[in-house]
Amino acid sequence: MFRLAVLASGRGSNLQAIINKLHLSKNNIKISCVISNKKMAIALEIAKNYEIPFYLIDENRYNNDEYEEMLIKTINSHDIDLIVLAGYLKILSAKFVNTFKDSIINIHPSLLPAFPGLDAQKQAINYGVKISGCTVHYVNKKVDTGPIIKQKAVKVEDKDDEASLSKKILKYEHQLLPEAIELIAQGKIKLNKDRTVTIKE
Ligand code: GRF
Question: Which domains does the chain have, with CATH numbers?
Answer without folding.
Answer: 1-101 (3.40.50.170), 107-201 (3.40.50.170)
